[in-house]
Specification:
By secondary structure, the protein is α/β, with parallel strands linked by helices. The protein is built from 11 helices and 9 strands. The protein has 2 domains: 135 residues, 3-Layer(aba) Sandwich (Rossmann fold); 133 residues, Aspartate/ornithine carbamoyltransferase (Rossmann fold), CATH 3.40.50.1370. Strands 7-6-5-8-9 form a 5-stranded parallel sheet, with helices on one face. It has a 4-stranded parallel sheet with strand order 2-1-3-4, sandwiched between helices. Helix 4 links the parallel strand 3 and strand 4. It is globular, with a radius of gyration of 19 Å. Bound molecules: phosphoric acid mono(formamide)ester. Phosphoric acid mono(formamide)ester (CP) binds next to helix 2.
């Protein structure tokens, strides 16, 4: 099965076989992690981080993945680069490409920016989050983490909880999980539920309390205040009352329910602290799996083709 994509822009455009290829590669790398990882797969390659939005997990884990594969990276600081002088995105990437770099890792507040860049350069572009659109490597690491708790996602019930409207993580999870046969539900305040979301193959769960006992996985989303042009929830107290994961709510959950969160977490709003640090949670596994899955993506896009 050969890898046929030049970029990773989203999970929407990958098929089930592509997902399996990345997840198999990640599983292989996980079996070698950390001491026996290959250090020469991307020797002499240089990746450029183009982060127009803040990041801790994605940027650092991409960087660790790049270094673990023997490549090097350059961080462009948007505050001190010529973007600050008004240089266009097109000119920025064309100039960087002319210097001989081998790939771009792009985060931007507008959907479609990674795709735009991919149309104008001849090197791989990886979307590290674009607006509300997609965050494909987060979707992959979430799925990889779920698969550490089940042999298959087919027929498993997964709830994506919270601010669906502003979440690129929700969309990448939905594209990936539905392709792998999971039954995907979404739940959140009506003001944060995009109309027509069911067309992506998910069901809206009207009540968190009613659906919790059925679930195998819950992926809890961050309330993204920075993306809300108007305040979309009447009050934090009300959000907490209906949508916060608390120990009380989890009393009806399956014993082996697995709870994920992409981070960063608003403790006490999306999830209580004792749930964040409790037995159902795999948040730090997700973070570690981020390195492995990003290594898998980088080696498929930039490594020797097999
Ligand atoms: N999950 C995630 O994208 O986190 P960062 O914003 O810290 O990269």
């Amino acid at each position: 099965m050969s890898w046929k994509h030049s970029h990773l822009l989203g999970l929407r455009t990958l098929d089930k076989e592509d997902l399996a290829r990345i997840l198999d590669k990640a599983a292989y790398l996980h079996s070698l992690y950390p001491d026996e990882l290959p250090e020469t797969t991307l020797q002499k390659k240089t990746l450029v981080h183009l982060f127009f939005e803040p990041s801790t997990r994605t940027r650092v884990s991409f960087d660790l993945a790049i270094k673990s594969l023997g490549a090097s990276s350059i961080q462009i600081n948007m505050e001190t680069s010529s973007v600050k002088k008004g240089e266009s995105l097109y000119d920025t990437v064309k100039n960087l490409e002319a210097m001989g770099v081998h790939g771009f890792i792009v985060r931007h507040r507008h959907g479609g920016v990674a795709e735009f860049i991919s149309k104008h350069v001849g090197i791989p572009v990886i979307n590290a989050g674009d607006g509300f659109n997609e965050h494909p490597t987060q979707g992959l690491l979430d799925i990889f983490t779920m698969l550490q708790h089940t042999d298959t996602l087919a027929g498993k019930k997964v709830l994506i909880l919270g601010d669906i409207a502003h979440s690129r993580v929700a969309r990448s999870n939905i594209w990936g999980l539905t392709k792998l046969g999971a039954e995907v539900f979404v739940c959140g305040p009506p003001t944060l539920m995009p109309s027509g979301i069911e067309q992506l193959g998910v069901k809206i769960a009207p009540s968190l309390d009613k659906i919790i006992p059925e679930l195998d996985f819950i992926n809890v989303l961050r309330v993204q205040y920075e993306r809300q042009e108007v305040q979309c929830i009447p009050s934090i107290r009300e959000y907490r009352a209906f949508f916060c994961l608390t120990q009380e709510r989890l009393k009806s959950a399956k014993k082996d329910l697995v709870i994920l969160h992409p981070g960063p977490i608003n403790r006490g709003i999306e999830m209580d602290s004792d749930v964040v640090d409790g037995p159902h949670n795999v948040i730090l596994d997700q973070v570690q799996n981020g390195i492995i899955t990003r290594m898998a993506v980088l080696s498929l896009l930039l490594g020797k083709k097999s």
